[in-house]
Amino acid sequence: MELLKKYIEDINKDLYLDDFNLKEVQMRLPARKHFWVARLIEAKIKRNTLFAKKKKLKKDLVKKVIEDSPVRINQTAAETAAERYDSVVNINNSIKEQDTIIEYLEKVEKILSTMHWEVKNIVDINRMEQL
């Protein structure tokens, strides 16, 4: 969750608006959106990698459980036993964390997609105040 905390801090900086940095934020917005979409894609790739790693590990553990069992057990029982190994539990936790990061970044992407309207509204308000 450290990565999520870092992302939250960084995004707070990107979303900060005031009268003095309005033009700068407006000019940087496409680049920042690209940056966060790239983080989203990286998170999805990492999630897919974790799923592949889990699948391979679970396959190896099921094979090990079947071989090490003093009695004959079926595939389903071996898969259930493999799910309880610490290494599989850790991967499952990492997958859940990646899911949370992906959900957050998808929402950030939506916010950044509509942020140009927020900037436009602020510019319009400033113009009306100057009249």
Keywords:
0% strand, rod-shaped, 131 residues, mainly alpha
Number of H- or I-type helical stretches: 4
Poorly predicted tracts of residues: none
Question: What does the overall shape look like?
Answer: rod-shaped
Kindly report the average pLDDT value. Answer: 91
What's the arrangement of secondary structure elements?
Layout lengths: L1 H14 L6 H47 L6 H9 L2 H45 L1
Helix pairs in contact: 1-4, 2-3, 2-4
How would you characterize this protein structure?
This protein has one domain (32-130). It contains 4 helices and no strands. The protein has helices at 2-15, 22-68, 75-83, 86-130. It is rod-shaped and about 85 Å long.
Short description:
This protein has 131 residues and is an all-alpha fold. The chain is built from 4 helices and no strands.
